[in-house]
Amino acid sequence: MRVLHICDDLPLPAVHGGRVAMRNEVAAMRAAGHEVFVLGFHHEEDLTPGTRSANEDFVNAFVPVPRRTLVRATLSNPLLPYQVSSRLEDDSSLAEVRNWKPDLIVSHHEWTLPVAFRLREELGPLPVVLRAHNDELRYFRDLLRAAKGVKAPYLLAEYVRIRNFFRAVRDFPITKIWFMSPDDVAPRFGDIPHTIIPPIMFDVPISDGLDLNVHRARTVTFIGSLDIPHAIEGLQWFLAETWPKVLARVPDATLTIAGRRPVAELVRSAAATPNVTLVDSPEDINQFLAVSRVFVNPVFAGSGVNLKLGDPMRWAIPVVTTTVGGRGLSALSGALSCADTPEAFAERIATLLSDDRAWREAKDSLVARRDAYSAASVGALLNAAVAEHAVRPSVAGA
Questions:
Q1: Dihedral (C-alpha) 103, 104, 105, 108: value to the nearest 10 degrees?
Q2: Each residue of 270-325: pLDDT tens digit?
Q3: Cβ distance 397 to 33 under 8 Å?
Q4: Nearest to 103 by CA among 131, 125, 118, 122
Q5: Which backbone phi and psi does 228 adopt, to 5 degrees?
Q6: pTM for the model
Q7: Strands ordered across the beta sheet of 319-321
Q8: Are the beta carbons of 102 and 4 closer than 8 angstroms?
Q9: What is the rounded distance in angstroms from the CA atom of residue 214 to the CA atom of residue 216?
Q10: What is the model's pLDDT at position 213?
Q11: Which helix (H) or strand (E) holds 375?
Q12: What is the C-alpha to C-alpha distance for residues 102 and 84, in angstroms, rounded to an integer?
């Protein structure tokens, strides 16, 4: 089949969870033999020559569309949320897309639905699938609750616009919704047919994890976006209330925090906390994963599946997370260590750092369950879901 992905962001480079999910699903469809086209929205500064080339090489055809600025988008469509109004296409960007003549449109996030249905009007009654990455309304509600200063009134206005937009979404002729987890199924979609297709969290696993000898160093790791409010809040909690308790048990433990765009307050907190290193926007995160004994995910808000856990899954690194941080990963029940208080969180980390038997058991449990989120397993589900909408005989492997 010829599948058009309308992406709210560029699939490559896959530097955060949303991009990872799109990259992995596009790759799985190509591996199954489908022709894949991508219409990808982006901020102007993100589309370097190298990024354009990487995305063009990744799919059969690629058209980048610059997002409108906040001022232009708001003035042009004041009643639409910025997440939507900044992703409205122009005729020049759609010229090539019209020539692709896709059999199926996959719309990533609700923000891209207006573009999907404009194309559908022009190309005929194509099936349009919404790939819902998380519960966006819940996500923005959490952002609003954490907002301070001038951000608060802006996020309040954006939340109201999003809520109104979502009321209209249920009237869109969406063929089907692919949710990532049962936790994301929202009543606001009404009776639109849906199915659960988990995200592809990793492609090829690192065997059954590296040998314990590699993990003798008592290294704890967090890798993720460092400019998102709920990540900042969780890391500040971890540094202030949990990490000192870990050091009381394991004085030589070290913590590495790595991610894009760390905010100044987090940089200051990391610098003031013993045995902590913060790495700003590393080009290669595997250097940290290869020597990490424990991966932590201290978040108390947000929505959807925490795709950052795909990296420790791939490397078979035991994970300590809050309950919210493990949401949507039911297949890993029992393999993740969940704790919501500083004492319990620190206790589990200290045990995994100091007790080799407990570490091996946690690693083996993760290895035994992680396949549910592998490219092979989820790719088969995706391929079956695509085949439901075939309008002609599918290609080999489809």
A1: -150
A2: 999 999 999 998 878 888 998 999 999 999 987 668 888 998 999 999 999 999 99
A3: yes
A4: 125
A5: -95, 130
A6: 0.85
A7: 276-280, 254-259, 219-223, 294-297, 319-321, 337-338
A8: yes
A9: 6
A10: 59
A11: helix 375-387
A12: 23
Q: Residue 188 has what pLDDT? A: 80
With CA atoms as reference, report the closest residue to 334 among 314, 362, 312: 362
Q: Which of 375, 345, 348, 347 is nearest to 361 (CA)?
A: 348
- The conformational region for residue 11 under phi > 0 = left, psi -120 to 50 = alpha, else beta, is alpha
CA-to-CA distance for 258 and 319, rounded, in angstroms? 16
- Report the phi/psi class of residue 328: left, alpha or beta, with left for phi > 0 and alpha for psi in -120 to 50: left
CB 397 within 8 A of CB 387: no
Query: How is residue 253 written in tokens?
Result: 């433990």
Q: Which helix or strand (DSSP H or E) is residue 116 part of?
A: helix 113-123
| Integer Cα distance of 72 and 170 in angstroms | 27
Whether 107 and 113 have beta carbons less than 8 Å apart is answered as yes
What does the block give as tokens for 274? Answer: 């013993």
In this predicted model, what pLDDT tens digit does every residue of 124-142 receive, in sequence order? 889 999 999 988 888 888 8
